[in-house]
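Re: Re: token formats

Sure, here are both.
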Amino acid sequence: MLYLTADKFPVFVPFGVIGFYRYLWFLIRVAASVAYRPVPLPINPTYIAAEDVTIIVPTIDAGEEFKQAARSWLVGKPKEIIIITEEKMKGPLQELAEAVDPSRIRVLTVPFANKRLQMVHGIRNTTTDIICFADDDAIWPPKMLPYLLAPFEDQKVGGVGTSQRVQPVGDTMTVWEVLAAFRLTIRNIEISASTHIDGGVPCLSGRTAAYRTIILKDPEFIHGFTNDLWLNKYHLNSGDDKFLTRWMVSHGWSTYIQCCYDSELLSTMKPNWRFLLQVLRWTRNTWRSDLRSLFMERHVWTSHPYCAYTMVDKLFNPLTLLLGPVLVTILCVKAAKGDYHLPVWKIILSYMAWLTLTRTLKLVPHLWKRPQDIIHVPAFIAFGYYFAIMKMYALFTLHEVGWGTRAGIGDATQALNALNAQNAAPQAGEKPYDPEAANYASQQRR
């Protein structure tokens, strides 16, 4: 960050060309977010949850929190919930399903734990028009499903996402959970702004997102989704939501984010230092996906130019963020040598005051609801610089494709072969998905 300071100005103001650009960019996002409106619920909906929605939940270690999440999904009356897990976990998950609603929850298994293959197995066993993927701890508000379905009234829309906020694991939020909540507040502003400006979004978060089944049933999609390689060498398992979002863009489908109270899900985050491992995994996925979108696939430039610009901005964000303390350090060295008119303590104090003010302003939407979290603003500032360094580290370690916080992930190739064999013949009671019949049924309900 450059700075503007007159020779005899008694206070250091760490603001200049780069600073002006960063805060102007932020104000544009805020203005667009304020102007954004979610798609309202239709009077005569084409899609009805009880007939047209299957919720797919890939998991390997769902616990008691699953019961609360599942009951929140069932409020919307989906036709079915399909849980896909590895074979050794079927018993415990079957017990959880039976404790909630055995008539509408089915438990299926794959030979090995692999999220993308679990998702594909769920897709192959779906017979409804709309598939909704959900994390096993995602808690929905009562009107979530109607709001997820509303944008699908536009037949060009292929995928719909939501806004999010943090559900604490314990009675109170840890500092790690507050940091996650701060990040989600900023993300909600970004995705609503991007949706309002050009309809694009970098990612339909996998915590909860809905898609047209006809897109996901396409053999081309299934092959690409389960054979996603980085540098034609490293088999990707995480980053499934990034892949799905890019597929929508590259195949001409629109996306939409329903960002409002009635479609804002609650989700738990790691309440300890393992949150940093989550962030590292997400950061690597973002690097891989954004680089592909911008420089390999390139569809986003013409379909969603504003979204493309936000991706470019994020590429350089770590450098601009770290430039501030570098220039302040240089100035402090000059001041220590007597080559600058302000003492070192004034420079540092002014810089810290500026950081606190500007970072707090960015968090006003969160602090309005939880003013007690203002004590964690210094931690958020420190985390910002840590994240900038982590982001540079992630860039040089994109070949590391492990989950990081999830044990027991099986070999992708081995799991794919076993799953293909398992799906070679229809399972007992399985009905093939007929897109023409499904489309006719939905049209009849118009």
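Second one below.
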Amino acid sequence: MRKLKYSFEYCCSPIWIEETGIDKPILENVSIDSLNVDKFLKNEIEELQRIYQSTYNERDGRESGFEDLYQYSIFINRVIFSAQLLKMNLGNEYKIVFDLESWEKLLLSANKKLGGI
């Protein structure tokens, strides 16, 4: 079964498909439109992609990131939920690779900074 990695990075789509390479698997960055999922989920992932890319600081990449903890916390929740929807939509077609534990830790940290919401 092929793997689909769901991971946000700057200047890339959050969708990575594992292809078979000569010596080892290769991750290919693919368009969200290439996924066989419903329109709502595509739109949600595209919106999350726009939000994430808007936090990129072109002058100094080290300064990239969310400035508002509320927005960051909402973003993380939406990413986690969209990953769950991806698994439901593509579970038979791909093994979904998503680091839920790391995202949950980010959410917990952001919520603590917000006063325990």
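Strands lie at 2-6, 15-19, 26-30, 94-97. The two ends are 39 Å apart (CA to CA).
- S.
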